Amino acid sequence: MDKPRVLYLPTPGHTRRVFREETYARMCRLFEVHANPEDRNYITEEVAERVTGYDAIVTGWGTPPLTEEVFGRADRLRLIAHSAGSVKRMLSEEVVRRYIIPRGIVVFSANEAIAYNVAESTVGMMIMAKRRWPEHIRAFQDKGVWRDPEVLWNGKFLLGSTVGVIGASKVGRLVIRFLEPFQVKILVYDPYLSEWEAGRLGAEKVELEELLRRSDIVTLHAPATPKTERMLRAEHFRLMKDGAVLVNTARGRLVDHQALLREARTGRIAVVLDVTDPEPLPPDSPFRDLPNVYITPHIAGAGHYGYFRIGDTTLKALEDCLLLGKSVEGAVPLDRYALLA
Question: How much is the pTM?
């Protein structure tokens, strides 16, 4: 019996990042894999030239848009296995509507694998900002001060706090799970989440304004869509408690940065930004000079654990779809394209 044929588009560098050697070797044993040998990504026309006769395509960061030209030649395609996060830059809504949904092509995304890294980073950022470790470190290094009286060293930190989660996405749900040992009260705002599902997560579903008023820590995990752009504005920041922390590991454009800057300058709240708008912030950005603003260079998703889960779950999607005839865990709900991150 012939093996299913897989067109593998990512570069060798991408492969080394997200596939363990044994995982990639297993994929090559189970399937007839035709890999990209170049240290560059194919362009759309090159994908179209190669796609005929393949049962699946493996895509990744840097994969070009898969256009009508590609699907016009994709005569056997059953699965697109995306060994990365969002599929929106690769698949337009028109392509999804005209080709993927009518043909029953499954689209898998490994975004849950990356979500583990982001959730770990988010919890770490909460602890860092509440305990103000960077300021203590700077005080000792720069001023030689042991336990600087100008920097809070005792108080209410993560343990026992109220944490507001904006967006019950895969990352948001993992953050809730990772917070279980810290005995926190979880509030969640997500208009698409039912109260029953919130209860199942161990959270209380509330409106956005109530979440901001009650939370000691607010963490953003909503998708970036036209509806969520600048969803946090000046009137929202004013609702936050004195001493509260805002963490954004989602997307910079969820936040009105000018309004956030004005609030951060008061010193009332601490802010952790792994994502900004623009990204990176320009060298003269006032955010860079505020001691209560901690900026990291969009690295919350990094880490071997989550990256290798990308390869593991990509291979599982291929096996389930092409060999076992099972439903694919991590299949993208393309009927809700507008709500996807």
Answer: 0.90
